[in-house]
């Protein structure tokens, strides 16, 4: 005779009634978080209204023909194709900007590192000299300093007179197509204070024991610099390099002041941002200028990515193995 099991299946729990435990916890978390969003709201509003929305509008305008007065007219990729295939001044602006970046950035970083190493070994007056060397970084971006710089390098200016006294007859740099861009380069190099301060902070983090051990092994100053200073300072070098490259591609005020706003003479100071300004606000081709701005953004992003990729082979981090 078969036995019939009298065991009952477990009762189903009705999950549709009553508050869920996790739902109450999430409500408490949200109640604790809302003050943070209130304090973040000014930044969020600024990021949305001053960055994200203008970027979206600029991207749209780059595909239009817009002159600031009439409604934008959609032209597709015409601005980009004209820029890349039918605008020789665009490519001159690219070449001038690349020359400026290749010359100015190494000179500026080299001078900043050299002065930082001198200040590291200075016992008295370090704070004064550090402030004095940093001051040009605060003043150099102003239009007034750029105009003074133009006067110094103009025909009959101080630089030409001083060079004449030592037998170097260059004339005014501002009016010479071969030298005008280097006047802008020197103005940029003169503003080496910001990377210098960063280099000085990095140098102070290197342990003196490393130099003492190298000296005991017979390493000279140059060998110590190559084998200790450069590897230990490579993250700081990389940081300064990325910042200076990005900033150099966006140079505008010195080029505008020294060239008189037209990129002269003979387009020798026609930097990318100056040509962008000319096409957008002088010629009222705002759609074309927006396309130039987006290509500049893409180029800076690509170069920055290349710097990050290549940094794996030369940037040394003491707290990571295999670097």
Automatic annotation (TrEMBL):
Annotated spans, Disordered: 1-28
Keyword field contains Transmembrane: yes
Record GO cellular component, one term: plasma membrane
UniProt cross-references to Pfam families, sorted A to Z: BPD_transp_1 (PF00528)
GO biological process: transmembrane transport
Topological type in the membrane: Multi-pass membrane protein
Keyword Transmembrane helix: yes
Segments forming domain ABC transmembrane type-1: 94-307
Transmembrane segments: 36-61, 98-119, 131-152, 179-203, 224-243, 286-308
Subcellular location: Cell membrane
Main location: membrane
Segments of skewed composition (Basic and acidic residues): 11-22
Family statement drawn from the similarity comment of this UniProt entry: Belongs to the binding-protein-dependent transport system permease family.
Protein name (database record): ABC transporter permease
Lineage, opening ranks: Bacteria, Bacillati, Actinomycetota, Actinomycetes, Kitasatosporales
